[in-house]
Amino acid sequence: MNLTRRALLTHSMLASTGLLALNGCAEKLLEGTPFANAPRKTALSLDQAIDYPSHVLMRLSYGIHPFDRHELLSLANNPDDAANAWIEQQLGPESIDDQVCERLIRRHEALEQPLGELFEYKEQVLLREITTATLLRAVYSQRQLHERLIGFWHDHFNVDMSKGECAWLTVAYDRDVIRTHALGHFSELLRAVVLSPAMLWYLDGRVNRVNEFGMKPNENYARELLELHTLGLDGDYTQTDIMEIARCLSGWSVREQRRFRKGLVEFHPDQHDPGEKKVLGRTIPAGGGEKDLDQVIDLVAQHPATARHLARKLCQHFIHDQPSSSAIAAVEQAFIRSQGDLAVTMRALTASTDFHAPELRGVKLKRPFHFLASCLRVTAAESDGGRPLHEYLQRLGQLPFQFPTPDGQPDQAEAWTGTLLWRWRFADELTRNHLHKTRIRHSDLLRHCGSPSGVISHVLGRQAHADEKELLLANQEHTLALLLASPLFQRC
Amino acid sequence: MTTQRTLVTIFLRGGADGLTLLPPINDDVYRRSRPTLAVSDGHRLDDRFMLHPMLAPLAPLYDAGQMAIIPACGSDDSTRSHFYAQDLMEHGGATVAGGWIGRFLRNAKNPSAAGVLDAVTVGSAVSESLRGAPNATAFSALEDLVGSNTDRAMLDTLARWYAKDALLGAPATAAVAASVQLQALQHAEDKPQHNAEYPTEKSHGGIAADFGKKLRLIARLIQADLGMRSACVDLDGWDSHFMQSSVMAPRINALGAGLAAFITDLGSVLDHVSIVVLSEFGRRVAENTSLGTDHGRGGVTFVIGGGVKGGVKGTWPGLNDDVLEGPGDVPVTTDYRDVLWPVLQRHGATNAHAVFPEHQLRSVEI
């Protein structure tokens, strides 16, 4: 890049962010801002292509916060080791201090109420609070990979708050089931899902009962358990397996309206089919009662088709829309060897050849929620996670906890390519600080990144190429908006 | 010329009294039960019903066979609670996920093909019936949609930046085009077509003026052919326990004058637009001591345009004691979903189970 042009670019960006006047007193302004505790800077030296540390941050988090790269690089002497150390840290979320984010979440006290108390709240209040909290965590949690996995499992074990009592039960589901087990063992996660009042409501398990009047089991959950949650559609099971599992799970119900301890999950032996069942080739003897459920969980959680199904979905989410069979195999093997330890499984995914392949970096389209969160992270925006953001998520078609069908929000790029205009609008409104209670401190961001080109490479995760610089130069009033609206930033 | 089919859903919140919107003719029970509230003149439709006089602007549509009216229509709600009954009707079932329009939109065609303004509510929040839609937007004015971004330069830069993108190139071109169209629309003169005259505060009062404004916005979006498949708008305040006439008159006036202008404005485009008017329930047959009526069951549903087969449809059970339900309410002889489904089919719906999973369909011929 020729020097005159660089100088020109620098100058025009400074002018566009209204910075020149503020430069002198910026030190004072930093107090109490998102930049107050900035790590001591090492020069941000980014390549022409996305390097491994940037790739790790882009792919495993909700976007690169201005401090992230510095903090990652401080973990080891060489950048690749540092990136691996960051992954290792992220795989043990409880060891990461997350007080700042937790303080923000604590303001939404409804979300901390025990299940029974949740029914005291209006459903619209809970919906608003949980949407806000989910956004705040995606943007401000230090446990970024954990948050990404929570998002993944919410799609995998989708529940829609608009169905019956899910409006109340989803709050406990998010907190006690998905968040608790997202990086634990799959069989424990699955068990918690199967026994959650939210899933029992959402997929009708609560009305799966038999009695002497010839009431037949309700198969809905048994079918989705096999098709979506465990073995997968090509998982080699039969209609008989579905019916037999429905018999095994019959009798589990959720305590109904206007009763003491509403929402409690309980087993009714009189509504359970006590006979012998045969599931996936295994005989479950008669009279097992509530223990039938444990046997079903063990069978499906340890089934080889489950390992393959989950490995494929995880690779799709974190590597490529069409993952290679070698990547799937590596993840599948780790899942089987570790008996469904999700941290071990994710470690194997990040160690796979495909995860490291330079040509597979920056190719995964961010879904709208991810895009929106990454805009806030990359600009270190201050936000209350409130209504204007919810409205954008709705326009973009990805409000959390509001997807109607049990297959969860689609993960492939094609489903989301129609959302560009609202993404651009969001980038524009955000960078103009037009969104109520969400704010970017442009001057601080520029100072932190050192220069306009520093901002550009920070947002893109690599240096801008000549043609990209030219485009940015052509429209200096919206440099940051253009960066967030660019095709590169739609991907991770 | 508009080619996209659009479903316009008007929800009359509060429980609109079907016996006032569509008064029965020569019905002794009606006159005895409503000594002060019975409507005695209006536009005669057939030997059983007339239209409330303030709905007379819609009569030519009925006469042209472009309006179906379904009395004794409603949901299986028996709580007679506004909140519950509205929720039930908007979701299209008691324990289903999402709203009925949301499920329709998601199942009608590839959701990724949905345009930026696929589903809208003109109002402050997206309607419950749109829950689960591929995307949905609430707005009160075009300015809310266009936002601050009126800068062509930024769009031009983005168009160039995305041009070579194999995946996002074509969607970016479409997004730029939609944005340009919306901006053009915002700056275009807001002139209703075919000399349509929307109600003003002066001509029909504030409620009608406000409702008319919302319908005009929908008409503009339809006329701009932005690919909008569904638009929702509410007309609130039908809960006429007390002094029913003064509660209902301004709203019936709004409905009649607003819809008549909207339909004139659309002109022949009405062939592509179905208008559905719903309320969560009708009201009790007998008037109460405050010159009002209380929550009931069966109400009246209107379907206009979009190729509808007009006429008074469904089964009218009459008002004799032996047919009334509970405390004396018009029973529901036609489930609202049996009215909606044939409409949705004309808008490309094929999978009834996906849209109304809890309901065994017995579609009305409309």
Protein described:
Chain A is mainly alpha-helical. In chain A, 52% of the residues lie in helices and 3% in strands. Chain A is built from 26 helices and 6 strands. In chain A, the strands form 3 sheets. Chain A has a two-stranded antiparallel ribbon with strand order 1-2. Chain A has a two-stranded antiparallel ribbon with strand order 3-4. The radius of gyration of chain A is 24 Å and the shape is globular. Mean pLDDT of chain A is 90; it is low at 1-31. Chain B is an alpha/beta fold and 366 residues long. In chain B, 35% of the residues lie in helices and 14% in strands. Chain B contains 13 helices and 11 strands. Chain B has helices at 18-21, 28-33, 59-63, 82-91, 100-108, 142-146, 152-162, 169-187, 201-204, 206-223, 244-266, 336-346, 352-355, and strands spanning 6-12, 43-44, 50-51, 67-74, 119-122, 137-139, 230-235, 273-279, 299-305, 311-312, 334-335.
Structural topology:
The complex is a heterodimer of chains A (492) and B (366).
Chain A: H1 3-16, H2 26-29, H3 52-60, H4 68-73, H5 79-90, H6 99-106, H7 115-118, H8 123-140, H9 144-156, H10 166-181, H11 186-194, H12 197-202, H13 220-229, H14 239-249, E1 252-254, E2 265-267, E3 277-279, E4 282-284, H15 291-301, H16 304-318, H17 325-337, H18 342-351, H19 353-356, H20 368-378, E5 382-383, H21 387-395, H22 420-431, E6 438-439, H23 442-449, H24 452-460, H25 466-474, H26 479-485
Antiparallel strand pairs in A: 1-2, 3-4, 5-6
Chain B: E1 6-12, H1 18-21, H2 28-33, E2 43-44, E3 50-51, H3 59-63, E4 67-74, H4 82-91, H5 100-108, E5 119-122, E6 137-139, H6 142-146, H7 152-162, H8 169-187, H9 201-204, H10 206-223, E7 230-235, H11 244-266, E8 273-279, E9 299-305, E10 311-312, E11 334-335, H12 336-346, H13 352-355
